[in-house]
Structure formats: C-alpha cells, structure tokens
C-alpha cells in the first residue's frame, strides 16, 4: 500500500513537471524563450529571479502574456498570445516563476 502511494506520488510529480514545458512548447512560447538561455525574450530563470518577491507577479504576467507588451526587459516587445486561455497563461507563469 505504501509503495503504491509513493509510486503514485512520483508519477504525479513527474507528470506535472512535464505538463508545463509541453504546454509552453505547444503554445509557441519556446520559439522566443528558453528556460536558461537567452533567445528573443528573457529566459525563464531570469524572469523567476526578477519577480521572486513580487506577490502580484502571477496576475500581472499572466495578463501580459495574453495581451503582449514591452518595456520590462529591453526594446523588443512580446506580441500578444491569444492562443492561451487565462487559465493556461496563469499555469505557464506559475511554472516559469518556479524555474529559478
Ligand atoms: C515572438 C516572441 C515571443 C513569444 C512567442 C513569447 N514571448 Fe514572452 N517575451 C518576449 C519578449 C521579447 C519579452 C520581453 C518583453 C519586455 O521587455 O517587456 C517577453 C517577456 C515575457 C515575460 C516577462 C514579462 C515581464 O513583464 O517581465 C513572460 C512571463 C513571458 N514572456 C512569457 C511568455 C509565454 C508564457 C509565452 C507563450 C504563451 C511567451 N512568452 C511567448 C517574446 C516572446
């Protein structure tokens, strides 16, 4: 019983570790972002570090991902990403902020 529980927990944990990189890939985020390398946009670890103490970061960034915008990292703005729903955007940002 205990083994089954540990096994289930491990499976669940690895499933959620995969869910968001896959979602990021599917939604086209990885065309401009990488977890720890600079592409067109800032890498996800930099973003996580920048907003580490910002309690409103999830709400603000999830809205920005969908609407697009610039000014936070440099001269290149992020285009709008209407292909992500509000819930997906929040899920992606929560994952990004946890990559640090
Ligand atoms: C066409 C390229 C491109 C795509 C596609 C893209 N981004 Fe970005 N992203 C950028 C750029 C450029 C910036 C920097 C914008 C700035 O300076 O404010 C950025 C910034 C961000 C930020 C930080 C915003 C801030 O204000 O600090 C987050 C979070 C983010 N992107 C998440 C995502 C997610 C999630 C997706 C997929 C749904 C995505 N991006 C798709 C180019 C892109």
- Give the % helix: 55-70%
The biggest beta sheet is recorded as: none
Gyration radius, rounded: 15 Å
User: How many strands in all?
Assistant: 0
Beta-strand percentage range: under 5%
Characterise the protein shown here.
- The longest helix is centred in the first third of the chain and has 25 residues, at 2-26.
- The termini are far apart.
- Helix 1 crosses helix 4 (86-97) and helix 3 (57-67) crosses helix 4.
- This protein has 100 residues and is an all-alpha fold.
- It has four helices and no strands.
- Bound molecules: heme C.
- Residues 27-29, 31-33, 40-42, 47, 61, 64-65, 69-74, 76-79, 81, 84, 92-93, 96 line the site of heme C.
- Heme C binds next to helix 3 and helix 4.
List the helices and strands and how they pair.
Blueprint: H1 2-26, H2 44-50, H3 57-67, H4 86-97
Heme C is lined by residues 27-29, 31-33, 40-42, 47, 61, 64-65, 69-74, 76-79, 81, 84, 92-93, 96.
